[in-house]
Amino acid sequence: MSAAPTAYEPTDRTVPTRGRPKARYDRETVHSILDQAYVCHLGFVRDGAPVVLPTLFGRVGETLYVHGSTGSRPLLAAGKADPGLPVCLTVTHVDGLVLARSAFHHSVNYRSVVVHGIAYQVTDEDECRMALDALVDHVVPGRSADSRPANAKELAATAVIRLDLTEVSAKVRTGGPNDDAEDLGLPFWSGVVPVSPVYGTPVPAADLTPGLAAPDYLAAL
Amino acid sequence: MSAAPTAYEPTDRTVPTRGRPKARYDRETVHSILDQAYVCHLGFVRDGAPVVLPTLFGRVGETLYVHGSTGSRPLLAAGKADPGLPVCLTVTHVDGLVLARSAFHHSVNYRSVVVHGIAYQVTDEDECRMALDALVDHVVPGRSADSRPANAKELAATAVIRLDLTEVSAKVRTGGPNDDAEDLGLPFWSGVVPVSPVYGTPVPAADLTPGLAAPDYLAAL
């Protein structure tokens, strides 16, 4: 048994037509970008037109899970589609605003992952439960063990789809602006404004049992 | 001449199958969500499969603009498509992590906008220039007036597509967790962890002309 390769194999769809130096295929970079995002953008085709919806997701190894009501459109479509629903799942972080001397070279520093593939509805109950734990732990690591697990009624109301990480690429832009040499003397400030998410003080639910302290795993965020 | 209606007209595609109370159609909410985002997720169909790419955008009134290299795939497709390229453009902000007592009721507080429509390539040079200014000012308000405008060569290398805001909806989730009454006594902390973007200290370009101070409009971010 050989170890999994450390990188995804590039395909026609995952080699960009532009910005190739920014492309990354190693699993470590891809997993890290995915795991830091709360929301992905899930694209699918309905009646011949594209639909892109934000949704929570979870990762277990080389599989992503998305869940929703059994009545939600993409989940229904994945369940009905045979042999599955073609999707494109994309995650993006903005890390900085890149101000160049020229309007043309303005940009943002970012990290993104694009996954192409076929989404299948999960029918195995154990896999469903594992996926739902992964979805909760994706929001707050360690949280699934510190909440009430889904009961039979909730499981029946929830559809889960899986998307394997096979056709995958990341793109990463870092660093300063790339001004043209002839623009360097222009009197415009040039550089990067870093952007990052911060967490505020946890706000207890209005009906929280008095005396119940915020758990330690929130401090680790 | 009558004033523009204050809200977008709901359509089959913009009325959600679930979470209807979260839906918003007023222009003020939609514009505010769009204007606070740096990146949108642009979905289109290629060879029958969905593609979702992160990209910068700008807004001028009721029109969104997306730009890219004349060699980029969606831009090429919009240029070749007759009468335009069906797209779905989505923007999402995550405002908080919602921890419920039950795994099932975990969620995030978010604001999202989904725009359905046909993207057309902009061929008028004045509209192209206005769109490029809007794209730069979308990253940093006021910046387009404080940078070198695109020259003829840069304009020729840039494709711009426009998407009118006609079939549009927003979704907004705010507030605490919605735990079931029978779960309120469970010994799990419940509440919201706020998340918001913060800006770091601007990092000057390595080749910045000495003595050029960071502009005031960066302090306004």
TrEMBL record, chains A, B:
Superkingdom of this protein's organism: Bacteria
Stored Pfam families: Pyridox_ox_2
Gene3D superfamilies: Electron Transport, Fmn-binding Protein, Chain A
PANTHER family cross-referenced by the UniProt entry: 5-NITROIMIDAZOLE ANTIBIOTICS RESISTANCE PROTEIN, NIMA-FAMILY-RELATED PROTEIN-RELATED, FLAVIN-NUCLEOTIDE-BINDING PROTEIN
Protein name per its UniProtKB record: Pyridoxamine 5'-phosphate oxidase
Organism: Streptomyces lavendulae subsp. lavendulae
